[in-house]
Amino acid sequence: MKNLKKIELTGGKLTAPGITELAQAFPKCLQLEEISLQDNWLKEQEMSEVIEIFAKVKKLKKIDLSHNEISPKTVLALAKRTTTCPNVTDLQIRADNIIILSSGHSEEIPRSSNVKSREKEKDGQTRKITLR
């Protein structure tokens, strides 16, 4: 499991004990960059465990939690947590009434010499969260 880079567990019925087991296993996946848990009927309890995974998986870049049963409050908690994880650049949470696509840490593009520079920008990184 040390070399696992991507895990897709989609379209199943993950339960709270299953998420707990995954939360314990993910930190052992030292190269894990992508997690997709789409369409698993995950609820609030399971999502709180998923939130804790983010900090434990150091190379994690992409997370897809689309089409699960979570509230807007939990969606915002997930988005907030990813902003504290330096490598996470892509968080996708799609449902019938909410879409969050978060991307950040884009490569810096040099400014044209004729564009006025803003005052100091925070460490050159951007985060975009789109709510629809």
UniProtKB/TrEMBL annotation:
Name the UniProt key words of this record, in alphabetical order. GTPase activation, Leucine-rich repeat, Repeat
Hey, what's the signal peptide range on this chain? none
Can you cite a GO biological process for this protein? nucleocytoplasmic transport
Q: Where is this region: Disordered?
A: 106-132
Locate the compositionally biased regions of type Basic and acidic residues.
106-126
Per UniProt, what is one GO molecular function of this protein?
GTPase activator activity
Decide whether keyword Transferase is in the record: no
Of the GO CC terms on this record, one is: nucleus
Q: Which PANTHER family match?
A: RAN GTPASE-ACTIVATING PROTEIN 1
What protein am I looking at? Uncharacterized protein
Look up and give the organism this protein is from: Sphenodon punctatus
